[in-house]
């Protein structure tokens, strides 16, 4: 039976300061997309508002722009998908086997407080689907509550881009909040690798998360084991 994966991407194009562009970290999408495509799964993109998902410029330069991301950039049909993402209300959660929240700093602004994303995530989780995130994508799970009122992340092991990685990347002062600290404040059992910027995946039942852009492949592979 074919599985259906919904990738969550951002609509945000810049930091609070418009002179600092941001957007989807492309390889975090493409690495997972390639893995799911190889299994013949159907896939779709959703964003908080629907429509265009901008790309993070820093992810489009060597060495971060790898073969997977270059192939996407060179495929007009796939690039068109980023111009016409679905809104959460257009997605029937009954047909979703796994959600995969992509990253890029952009998501810090529009993922956490999107009622549509929260409703979609709650519905997929409560019907037994997999909820996954990579890098900053875990910001999309910060405020999602289940039907009983509890936070989805409370008491569950999770990882995502660490504050030390923000500092090492030289962007900590530009961040709207400390995502790692906010996760911990919500009762999540945050975990990270001993060494920054290496692939690291944490799975807690049907909740799967990867720490940074280099964790996208391993995150998608862990999702596969649950499907």
Set down the secondary structure blueprint:
Elements: E1 4-8, H1 26-38, E2 42-46, H2 67-73, H3 76-81, E3 98-101, H4 107-110, H5 115-126, E4 130-134, E5 157-158, H6 163-168, H7 179-185, E6 189-190, E7 201-204, E8 207-210, H8 216-226
Helix pairs in contact: 1-8
Question: Would you give an account of this structure?
Answer:
The protein is of the alpha/beta class. It has a single domain (4-226), classed as Class I glutamine amidotransferase (GATase) domain (Rossmann fold). Helix content is 29%, strand content 14%. Helix 1 runs parallel beside helix 8 (216-226). The chain starts with a strand and ends with a helix. GO terms for molecular function: glyoxalase III activity; peptidase activity; transferase activity.
Features:
single chain, 227 residues, alpha/beta, Rossmann fold, 6-stranded mixed beta sheet, two-stranded parallel sheet, 8 strands, 29% helix, hydrolase
Largest sheet strand order: 2-1-3-4-8-7
- The string of secondary-structure elements, in order, is EHEHHEHHEEHHEEEH
Low-confidence residue ranges: none
Form type: globular
Class by helix and strand content? alpha/beta
CATH class assignment: Alpha Beta
Strand content: 5-15%
Q: Give me the Rg, rounded.
A: 16 Å
Average residue pLDDT? 97
């Amino acid at each position: 039976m074919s599985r259906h994966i919904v990738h969550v991407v951002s609509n945000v194009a810049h930091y609070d300061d418009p002179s600092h562009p941001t957007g989807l970290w492309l390889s975090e999408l493409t690495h997972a997309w390639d893995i799911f495509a190889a299994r013949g799964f159907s896939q779709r993109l959703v964003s908080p508002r629907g429509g265009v998902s901008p790309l993070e410029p820093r992810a489009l330069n060597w060495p971060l722009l790898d073969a997977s991301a270059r192939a996407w950039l060179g495929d007009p049909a796939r690039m068109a998908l980023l111009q016409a993402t679905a809104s959460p209300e257009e997605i029937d959660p009954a047909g979703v086997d796994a959600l995969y929240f992509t990253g890029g700093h952009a998501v810090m602004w529009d993922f956490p407080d999107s009622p549509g994303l929260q409703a979609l995530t709650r519905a997929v989780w409560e019907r037994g689907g997999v909820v996954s995130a990579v890098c900053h994508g875990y910001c999309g799970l910060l405020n999602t509550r289940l039907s009983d009122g509890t936070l989805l992340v409370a008491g569950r092991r999770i990882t995502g881009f660490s504050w030390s990685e923000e500092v090492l990347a030289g962007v900590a002062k530009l961040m709207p909040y400390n995502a790692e600290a906010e996760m911990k404040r919500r009762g999540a059992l945050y975990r990270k690798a001993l060494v920054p910027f290496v692939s690291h995946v944490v799975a807690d039942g049907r909740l799967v998360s990867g720490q940074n852009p280099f964790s996208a492949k391993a995150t998608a592979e862990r999702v596969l084991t649950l499907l």
